[in-house]
Amino acid sequence: MSISPEMRRLSAKWKANTGWPKRLESIAIKGLRGWTGQRFQFGFPIMAVTGENGVGKSTVLQCAAAVYASEEEHYASDFFPDTAWDEIRNATVSYVVREGTKETTGTIRKPGPRWRGNPDRRERDVRYIDLSRIQPVSARTGYMMLADPALKEVHSTSFEQAKLSRLCEIMGRHYESARMAATSANDKRHVPVIAASGVGYSGFHQGAGETTVAELLESDIPPYSIVLIDEIETSLHPRAQGRLIRDLADRCRERELQVVLTTHSPYVLEELPFDARAYIMQSPNGTREVIYGVSSEFAMSKMDDVQHHECDVYVEDRRAEIMLIEIVQAHKKELVGRFDTIPYGASSVGQSLGQMVAGRRFKRASCVFIDGDQGDAMGCNTLPGVDPPERVVFSGLKERGWIGIAQRTGRSHPEIVDACTRAMAAADHHEWVNHAAAALVLGGDVLWNALCAEWAVSCLTGDMAAKVIQPIEDAINNILPAERSPWRQADSAPAATILPPNAESPRSPDVAVAPRRPSSSASPSGQTNLLELFSDAEQRSKP
Hints:
This protein is of the alpha/beta class. Helices cover 34% and strands 20% of the residues. Helix 4 packs antiparallel against helix 5 (208-218) and helix 13 packs antiparallel against helix 14. The longest helix is centred in the middle third of the chain and has 18 residues, at 238-255. It is globular and about 80 Å long. The two termini are 47 Å apart.
């Protein structure tokens, strides 16, 4: 995963803990739209909330908006009203906010017919941007009267050069000018007017994406604000989505904003580091579960019903995926194509998935692999070795003198020996492949495929390969996993528990798995333990 310079600069400032004097640390939601007390933690200046429709992504945004008192007034009663079909009682939104070094806890609640706790809210500028922004100008209430050609423009506010440049960068095209204009019919209703290639046109004739971005850029958001955006990718093509997230990263860093957004887009998720991603999963009994640090592949596989394989195989990242596929390719080629590999991201996600496999909670045949350096975990299989895949493969091939790699890559043997040996001198093993690939003028995946293919043939024994292949075959054949001998010598390692969102991961620091500022409030049960999540439903289903 390649993170943009804008996101790296934001991450560096956040980790330095030198800003953001106002921040929302966490909220716990109970009694609203299926939430039963689960806590959602905000561990990065931009948090992306993803998941299927109806799991409660918008509820997170709306509760966050209701936590603060602001000029742009937002109350829980606006978002969660009583209706002829819905009556909300015993609902609670608990929150932890930080101002400087002071941490404050509070609640807004509805024990009966009225919401309580609003006067106790802390003050902060809140910008809540919902899906009404994508409504065409001509469909907005009262705007068609502005389309009368007899009307005259009475005033306008032009985008200064910096803002105009941002519009051009996000949309990927050149605009000579942009402004928000009003007519004599109603000077409070503004319409974006832009000019490109010598032609000016208003929001009545713009593309939906142009109007959306122009209106997003219109207002200058005050420093230290919280900005909440529902389905940020709507109306934007993939490249524009990525550029908008990079623009937000710069704004967050410069003004120390906190942004929370919902998304179904892999292009948005790929722009963000792991600790900026949270997936909301819903169990068969409707209970919500928040999983942090997911990969975009994991999120998309969970939201997509297109399935063509007999088994889902979860691996930590692209390197582990290639290693596993090459093992199967070398030792049981006919199995390739019968399973789908899904990188899940942080190691704690793999541990959570392993507990689900152990409890047979997946609808499809599934098995989970963690890297060899992660230790043993319930329901998980480990890739060969006791080190990360890069160290295992490089070390094994080095012992054999890098034989076979030259033929697979089209480079000379001396070049291979020099490039790979030099790469191993780098302290960070994650960079070994990139260093060697750059020296050999090869793509990183191309070199890693070649290394894994040769290693699987020349270094991996049949018994070791079977420990990878057998769990996949068992899953395809619906054979209940039995206790398998771990790769390491110890015969009885304790089962690993799921890491809570504020725990340190044993993985390398560049794979973030959790918010870095744990709340002083204890996480309620159901936050991260997927096995507990499904056990209640299972018990109720028993006669």
